[in-house]
From TrEMBL:
Family as reported in the entry's similarity comment: Belongs to the peptidase S33 family.
InterPro entries on file: AB_hydrolase_fold, Epox_hydrolase-like, Epoxide_hydro_N, Epoxide_hydrolase
UniProt-listed SUPFAM superfamilies: alpha/beta-Hydrolases
GO molecular function terms noted in the UniProt entry: epoxide hydrolase activity
Taxonomic placement: Bacteria, Bacillati, Actinomycetota, Actinomycetes, Propionibacteriales
Limits of the Epoxide hydrolase N-terminal domain: 3-105
Species assigned in the record: Kribbella kalugense
Keywords: Aromatic hydrocarbons catabolism, Hydrolase
Protein origin, superkingdom: Bacteria
Alphabetical GO biological process terms: epoxide metabolic process
Name of the protein this chain belongs to: Pimeloyl-ACP methyl ester carboxylesterase
Active site: 175 (nucleophile), 307 (proton donor), 374 (proton donor)
Length: 396
């Protein structure tokens, strides 16, 4: 394989700036509190900076500090970033991101995982780190029209064992990437050291007639304490709109977002703002780096369609053994995503162990943190790195 640095053409960047400067702005009256979604007073200055001021080439240089490769895996184009491990026996580790993530959301943990000694750690904990763009995301485009999380797991296994030649490897992921990683731990457990995930959903999460409905069509029970009622609404409002539209009408949305970079930025900015613990999680340059990756790869439509395909092509088990995910599993939970009624890390762990999700996993290391939001390795990179190392320390 020959390293292929990221190099977005001047033509793509010039077209992006032209479109940004031609944005037709709605009035957005009465939205000072953000009740109706992203505020124009937040979005317009960001769009103007994206058009005139943001330095993509500086971001590109930072990204190209790592080796990048583009390979064909069974007809699926895959881009991945690689950082060789520095230690006596680095084990291969594939990191799977989510939506609206990019491969660059792993950038804060790659070096500490690959070279722990340079960060005060034990070189025996080193990993050989492989960070792909999910098919249909970032620079892994164009992708197959039917791609979903369990099909991505098959692509990843072929990438790691067939293309890269690793007879055994480790896997980690968050968001959609946690489902990809869980499927690896289900179908390919014998060829994995283990997995580490940033959530612990059941692999049939998207199955069924209402795979777009977090509530499953159930009303909120009456008589709940006000705090619990409010937390249920907060969490459902945080995730419901994108989940429903992505599952039910991804292409309809995609036409608008693929044509308008301001519209694309608004749609994913809403998620970055609400899902992160703090609005200071991302600088403007951070936001626009990730947004440019989506735009340059023409990936917004195909990344969104993954949700619909998770429902259209339901997950089916590869075996009937229990736990379904036999690979040893570490889990990191964060405070911003605590369920209703949970207030401490200890309560979060117990809440999971008492849930119907716990029996799905061969969990060997569960850690909850009081802080941190949905973008775990970006928001709490030190905690994530520590948790992941602990998971694999006895599995090497």
């Amino acid at each position: 394989m020959i390293p292929t640095p990221i190099d977005v053409s001047d033509e793509v960047l010039d077209d992006l700036r032209r479109r940004l400067k031609a944005t037709k702005w709605p009035r957005d009256d009465g939205n000072d509190d953000g009740f109706y979604g992203v505020r124009r007073t937040r979005l317009q200055p960001l769009v103007e900076y994206w058009a005139d001021g943001f330095d993509w080439r500086a971001a590109e240089r930072a990204i190209n500090a790592y080796d990048h490769y583009r390979v064909d895996v069974g007809g699926v184009p895959v881009h991945f970033m690689h950082k060789p491990g520095v230690g006596p026996n680095p084990i291969p580790l594939i990191l799977s991101h989510g939506w609206p993530w990019t491969f660059w959301h792993w950038s804060k943990v790659i070096d500490p995982l690959a070279d722990p000694a340079s960060y005060g750690g034990d070189p025996a904990d080193a990993f050989d780190v492989i960070v792909p763009s999910l098919p249909g995301f970032g620079f892994s485009t164009p992708s197959r029209a039917d791609m979903n999380f369990w099909k991505i797991a098959d692509v990843w296994h072929e990438l790691m064992t067939g293309v890269l030649g690793h007879p055994k490897y480790a896997a980690a992921g968050c968001d959609v990437g946690a489902l990809v990683t869980g499927q690896l731990g289900h179908k390919y457990a014998d060829e994995l050291y283990g997995i580490h995930i940033g959530s612990a959903l059941k692999l049939d999460f998207f199955n069924g007639d209402r795979g777009w409905d977090l509530s499953g069509g159930k009303p909120i029970p009456p008589g709940l304490p006000p705090e619990i009622h409010a937390r249920i609404l907060e969490l459902e409002h945080r995730f419901a709109s994108h989940l429903a539209v992505h599952v039910l009408d991804p292409s309809t949305l995609g036409f608008g977002l693929a044509d308008s970079p301001a519209g694309m930025l608004a749609w994913i900015l809403e998620r970055w703002q609400k899902w992160a613990e703090s609005d200071k999680t991302f600088t403007d340059d951070d936001l626009l780096t990730h947004a440019t990756i989506y735009w340059a790869g023409n990936a917004i439509d195909t990344s969104i369609r993954t949700y619909a395909n998770n429902n259209r092509y339901p997950w089916t088990p590869s075996h009937d053994r229990t736990p379904a995910i036999e690979a040893p599993t570490g889990i990191t939970f964060v405070g911003h995503e605590d369920p209703p009624g949970v207030h401490t890390p200890e309560e979060r762990v117990q809440n999971f162990l008492a849930s119907d999700r716990a029996p799905w996993y061969n969990h060997v290391n569960i850690t909850a943190h009081p802080r941190g939001g949905h973008f775990i390795p970006w928001e709490v990179p030190t905690e994530w790195t520590t948790d992941l190392r602990r998971t694999f320390r006895d599995l090497r």
